[in-house]
Amino acid sequence: MNPVTTRPQQPGAALDTAVLDVQQLSKSYRSRKGDVPAVRSIEFAVHAGQFVSVVGPSGCGKTTLMMCIAGLLPISGGAVMFRGERMSGPRDGVAVVFQDYSRSLFPWLTVEKNVALPLRDRGLPRAEIRQRVQESLEMVGLAHAAGLHPWQLSGGMQQRVAIARGLAVRPEMLIMDEPFASVDAQTRASLEDLLLKVWAETGTTVLFVTHDIDEAVYLSDRVVVLSQGPSVVVADLPVTLDRPRDQIATKQTPLFGELREHVYSLVMASQRRTSLSGEPS
Amino acid sequence: MSGQALSRPIATSALAVGRGVRSLWLLALLLVVWEVAARMVGSLFVPPVSQIFGAFVDTWLSASPSSLFLSSQFRADVLPSLVRLGLGYGAATVLGVGLGILIGVWRPAGAFFNPLIRLGMSVPVTALLPIAIVLFGITSGMNVFLIALGCLWPILINTYDGVRGIDRTVVTAARSLRLTRRRYFLRVLLPGASPAIFAGMRISIGIALVLMVISELYAATAGLGFYIVSQQRLFQFPQLWSAIVLLALLGILFNAIFALVERVLLRWHRNVRPDSAESH
User: Fold this and answer.
1) Which residue numbers delimit the ABC transporter domain (chain A) (predicted)?
2) B200, B156 in Cβ contact below 8 A?
3) Cross-chain residue pair A102–B175, CB shorter than 8 Å
4) What is the pLDDT of residues A139-152, one digit of tens each?
């Protein structure tokens, strides 16, 4: 079974099946000098089972956008529709993995209890919770670490625990905010492949925010490129690279190089535009 | 890796024992100097250590093994003191943690009560002793009230700071998990604030001991403070000193209990490296 080949690869195709539909989303922060826009009418949709990355120059409001989509920040305008319903806060079916794993995991709980936490108070029987925790930890290869505390694990392992916690609720969509930005390059590559494996196994829709263009192209079905803040969508590119992907083989294909260059030039162009127009970077 | 993590507490406690032995030598030396000096000077008020030790055993530990060696004097004066301490300290903890969390979580209340708390904290509780005596009379209630009032502020302010100081990423992550209020409170808020809460409780246990003695020195019909004053009036200074030794031992005991509880409950806190991930 390979769900990858059966996925719609064209952006905008069959909009009615979109899991996530971001409509004219804008977000401003209040300050003394008035409202400071962070993101400005963002519009894109994510379809069931797709792996979509959002890239943009650093400081373009990617984290703000992610927080708004996850319902963790109130939006200033537009709408975020999840399964056709307007999102007004964090909701079931959406799990978030944060960049800062050392803070998003609770150090006073064991790995097992961290993963089980979102399953409590959901009316699930104990046995079911235990089984789901076990399953999620196995998926990220950490079943043996269940009884340890997060601070006894390396950074990469901690982020795997965070992914397991996200998977434990069996989300329809996993939102990830630069999840691999704080780990070393080798760990990062293996985490990317782990994520692809988990994504293929679960069929979960993934919205992946990153500043790393290679990572975005390597992982995704589609790459949404943002401009320098206040950001807008400058491009929404399909990535037609074959799956399963391989860290070496995929990255050596001419298509990968072309896509990577294309995204890179878009990001650089948006950066140049804003610096020429005199806006602060 | 887990082996390394497990061997670390053992190594640190071995080090602690080593330090303990070394400081015990210093203590022994001090006691010897005291003994010799006291014998040479022959002061009534500062008896030699051997006399104090003798008085200590006679006064507090002279009973039969069936009553755990604790003398009737122990039951007459130490138990009432400990009960007052326990009640006052317990009330301060319950009230301090409860109110601290409330004003920490509910911002308007925090802003409203903050100046009041800073004011209450800066009033030396001992100055309120005469008022407490007028209010309660010479009862245990007076001692308990004073201990509770003195212990309340450090626990309250530390709990408040602990709740307010919980990392924003922790709060955001907890929100994304959609926990019930009760679970958020028990599994995130309370443990997150617990290092600060414990710090406040540890400061307060010392304050409790001081206030217990002072309030009993002034107005009590039983208790360690009362015993100290009585022995002073009877010119029985070895007995007086034996009560001071007992107080010191109580202080050490309470500290040891805290160290143990923190070692177990806050093990995560000592092991978390605050810089293990880059912030963005």
Assistant:
1) 20-253
2) yes
3) no
4) 999 999 999 999 99
CA distance A11 to A9: 6
**Chain A touched by B264 (CB under 8 Å):** no
The answer to whether the beta carbons of residues B120 and B153 sit under 8 Å apart is yes
Q: A173: phi > 0 → left, psi -120 to 50 → alpha, else beta; which?
A: beta
Give the closest residue to A101 by CA, choosing from A53, A46, A158, A29: A158
Residue B241's pLDDT is what? Answer: 95
pLDDT at B278: 37
Cβ atoms within 10 Å of A9's Cβ, excluding its own: 15
Average pLDDT over residues A87-92: 90
Residues 6+ apart with CB under 8 A from B238: B47, B51, B52, B54, B55
Inter-chain touch A118–B278, beta carbons under 8 Å: no
Distance of residue B105 Cα from the nearest chain A Cα, in angstroms: 18
Is B167 within 8 Å of A103 when comparing Cβ atoms?
yes
Helix, strand or coil for residue B70? coil
Cβ distance of B191 and A108 shorter than 8 Å: yes
Residue B75 has pLDDT above 80, yes or no: yes
Inter-chain residue contact A149 with B192, CB threshold 8 Å: no
Beta-strand ranges (E) seen in A3-74 are: 18-31, 34-47, 51-55
pLDDT band for position A274 (cuts 50, 70, 90): low
In this prediction the pTM is: 0.82
Residue A91 in contact with partner chain B when CB distance is under 8 A: yes
> How would you label B109-147 residue by residue, b for 16+ Cβ within 10 Å and e otherwise?
ebeebeeebeeeeeeebeeebeebbeebeeebebbbbbb
Contacts of A115 in chain B (CB under 8 A): none
Give the number of residues written for chain A.
Answer: 281
Ordered domains of chain B (ranges, CATH): 2-60 (no CATH), 76-265 (1.10.3720.10)
Confidence of residue B13 (pLDDT cuts 50, 70, 90): low
Place of tokens 């070895």: B238
Query: Positive or negative CA dihedral for B42, B46, B51, B55?
Result: positive
Choose the closest CB to B268 out of A96, A108, A121.
Answer: A108
DSSP A17: G
Q: What is the complex's ipTM, to 2 decimals?
A: 0.85
